[in-house]
Amino acid sequence: MLLNLDNNFKPFLNNTEIEFESFVFSGGEPHIKITPFDTNQTVTITHRINSFNDLGLLLIAVDALQRMKVKTINAFIPYFPAARQDRLMQTGEPLTVKVYAQIINALQLNNIQIFDVHSEVTPALLNNCETIDNSHFIAKVVNQLNDSLLLVSPDGGALKKIYKLAQNLGGKQVIECSKSRDVKTGKLSGFKVFANDLQGKDCLIVDDICDGGGTFIGLAQALKAKNAGKLYLAVSHGIFSKGTAELAAYFDGIFTTNSIKNTNDENIIQIEMSEVL
């Protein structure tokens, strides 16, 4: 059975949904009332955590289910919060991903699934964690584009994942790139493409997260300087905190899932999570 805490996010089809009511008290605290059901069954909670209140709703939902004597509780959290804050760069910073992991570990869930995890740190910190890769998502993207396009890795940290993806897609060619970031200011610079001439071939940049988009704009400029053809971007988790207008000026297509939010942005081609799981 499914407890979809976000009514606009239903990643698993053909399952019985548990009915509930949720609201926020005037003091700002989330609350939930779950309609009674057969609690002998396994329950999977799905939720998109984009704020502490989203996390709070997950926490109290688990508590309510446990008080209803549900024995087996799983969770699906497509984008794990603070996954990018997985190492300490400067004194005085928190290891935020560990904070979230410790809170969720305290729930003692039977299983927790994450989609296209940012790094190996999250599953290492999270108990009973199962990761789902982006292969089905990217396969759907490729099916809409030129089958002979090149896959582009935005940096060295993505190489292991993208080479595995390329193999799953039948051995596609991978173009390696790199960038530099000032850890104090976050400013990006030094974009490099490790190929002499892309010969006008179409390129698909693949990554897990797009926030402001600066990485991909810089890469687009560097790829065009190496004679790239059409440029496309596929990110599993689309935050797009600065909008998509500037990105759309560089890319012929921008693909993402609804792991963060649902969007009607005309610059975005959104593929439902239910289609890629």
Descriptive overview:
This protein is α/β, with parallel strands linked by helices. The chain has 2 domains: 2-132, Rossmann fold; 135-275, Rossmann fold, CATH 3.40.50. The protein has helices at 52-67, 96-105, 121-125, 135-143, 159-168, 214-225, 245-248, and strands at 2-4, 20-24, 30-34, 43-46, 73-76, 111-115, 129-132, 150-153, 174-181, 188-193, 203-210, 231-238, 253-257, 268-271. Strands 10-9-8-11-12-13-14 form a 7-stranded mixed sheet, with helices on both faces. The chain has a 5-stranded parallel sheet with strand order 1-4-5-6-7, with helices on one face. A two-stranded antiparallel sheet has the order 2-3. Strand 2 (20-24) and strand 3 (30-34) form a beta hairpin. The radius of gyration is 20 Å and the shape is elongated.
* Number of beta-strand segments: 14
Global geometry: elongated
Helix-strand category: alpha/beta
Order of helices and strands: EEEEHEHEHEHEHEEEHEHEE
Show the helix and strand layout:
Layout: E1 2-4, E2 20-24, E3 30-34, E4 43-46, H1 52-67, E5 73-76, H2 96-105, E6 111-115, H3 121-125, E7 129-132, H4 135-143, E8 150-153, H5 159-168, E9 174-181, E10 188-193, E11 203-210, H6 214-225, E12 231-238, H7 245-248, E13 253-257, E14 268-271
Parallel strand pairs: 1-4, 4-5, 5-6, 6-7, 8-9, 8-11, 11-12, 12-13, 13-14
Antiparallel strand pairs: 2-3, 9-10
